[in-house]
Write a structure and sequence with these properties.
It is a single chain. The protein is α+β, with helices and mostly antiparallel strands. Helix content is about 45%, strand content about 10%. The strands form two sheets. Strands 1, 2, 3, 4, 5, 6 and 7 form a seven-stranded mixed β-sheet that branches. A two-stranded antiparallel ribbon has the order 8-9. The protein is globular, with a radius of gyration of 24 Å. Mean pLDDT is about 85; it is low at about 1-25, about 380-385 and about 395-425.
Length: about 425
């Protein structure tokens, strides 16, 4: 069939391509589990600055307060939820089922509201505009900010992480880059009334955040806030992000930040499969810092901050071909949706083309995930912090529930086990 006659056929090249692609398509089996991490939608600025020309009318411009989700943010999350419904139409039940989907958010108004708006797009019964008789809100789980070890980065209570960050910021390369912006930051101090030179770069980022939020909502910027100033502030922000998630010691930083969430995602899938649980999807409503830490752990940070409603997805599929000796017959594919006007980007874990066999994915991410004994968080390797617990999962039988509560460390029927286990993460 591949002889000269076939090659000479007008459709020959196309048929050859199909023959090459067909085996791979056949091997791509059904979707079995999904984990989604998304940033909240558009919000008001987090703060003002002393010379902000709009600071006297903050309550008028942002009636719900600084840092709160805007109407545009709600719309963005509704749109993301509708995209997820179209993507997983054949995977999820038409209506929300608590045993299939679990939603976790950080304990901030904007992420909790974003999760609710997303779910309103994903599930018809949670959508606005329907009749009261059919409207059903969907639960979103959270823990206090001070207890959130899964979605809040960087870890403000982790001295070891700050040792690593200090090592990065004191390095010659970082200091040289910073010195190049000293004059710029000095001028910006005069414009903003803030102390910026010698301060954490996050303070300069907050100026950028305020200006970008105001610009996005049609407010005039002060004359000094030129495009060049905004670009320079963005470059400074990129340097700061790189220090948090990049080298040196990027893997150890990841073990204390994004690797914790990555490990929880893999552990959730492993337990679902091992126990035959019906959970299909875990959703995390969080922040740009959460996504950046996760991208850093995956080796996928590209120098760009995630926009509002950006979504990073992990799709676990069961291959129909030969079983991998180490990881069974499961693969992981990654996608990143950072533009609602375009198709999501397909991402590949460095060292493993997509779709990546689960065993290979585990192997490649081992250095950035917390070891089984935990990672030291108190400096000088004094105390090992416990590994972050995974999301509560559901079991369908009383016997399984009892076993889980007694010894497996996995939450079944939430109300009965939550108090004994310390709450969901």
């Amino acid at each position: 069939m591949a002889g000269p006659g076939f090659r000479g056929h007008p459709a020959g090249p196309l048929l050859l391509l199909l023959l090459v692609l067909l085996p791979q398509a056949l091997l791509e089996g059904p979707l079995v589990f999904v984990a989604l991490v998304f940033r909240h939608g558009d919000r008001a600025p987090l703060a003002s600055y002393p010379t902000d020309p709009h600071k006297e009318v903050v309550s008028t411009l942002w009636p719900r307060g600084l840092g709160q989700l805007t109407g545009e943010g709600v719309r963005q999350q509704l749109e993301l939820g509708r995209f997820l419904r179209s993507r997983y139409e054949d995977f999820l039940s038409p209506k929300y089922r608590r045993e299939e989907v679990y939603i976790r958010s950080t304990d901030f108004d904007r992420t909790l509201e974003s999760a609710q708006a997303n779910l309103a797009g994903l599930f018809p019964e949670a959508a606005p505009g329907g009749s009261e008789a059919h409207w059903r809100p969907i639960p979103v789980h959270t823990v206090p900010v001070t207890e959130d070890k899964l979605l809040r980065f960087p870890m403000r209570s982790c001295p070891r992480y700050h040792e690593l960050l200090r090592e990065t910021t004191e390095a010659a390369e970082y200091q040289e880059a910073l010195e190049g912006w000293t004059d710029f930051l000095t001028r910006l101090e005069n414009f903003t009334g803030l102390s910026l030179v010698g301060e954490p770069l996050r303070r300069a980022w907050k100026v950028l955040d305020t200006l970008i939020c105001q610009q996005a909502h049609g407010l005039p910027l002060p004359s000094w806030a030129s495009p060049d100033v905004l670009r320079t502030l963005a470059q400074i922000s990129t340097l700061d992000i790189g220090a948090h998630v990049g080298p040196p010691r990027a893997a150890e930083k990841a073990q204390l930040t994004g690797g914790i969430l990555l490990d929880a995602i893999l552990s959730n899938f492993s337990r679902v499969q091992r126990l035959g649980l019906p959970l299909k999807m875990v959703m995390y409503s969080a922040h740009d810092s959460t996504l950046l830490a996760l991208q850093g752990a995956l080796g996928l940070y590209d120098g760009h901050a995630p926009p509002y409603a950006a979504c990073l997805g992990f799709e676990f599929r069961r291959r129909l071909g030969d079983v991998d000796e180490d990881g069974g017959n499961v693969t992981i594919s990654l996608f990143y949706r950072n533009d609602s006007a375009r198709l999501p980007l397909s991402l590949s874990l460095p060292g493993c083309p997509e779709p990546c066999p689960l065993s290979r994915f585990h192997q490649l991410t081992t250095p950035v995930r917390p070891p089984a004994h935990g990672v030291p968080c108190h400096g000088s390797y004094e105390t090992a912090a416990p590994r972050a617990p995974v999301v509560p999962l559901l079991a369908g039988a009383v016997a399984v529930l009892a076993a889980l509560c007694l010894g497996l460390g996995l939450l079944a029927w939430r109300p009965s086990c939550l108090r004994a286990w310390g709450g969901p993460v």
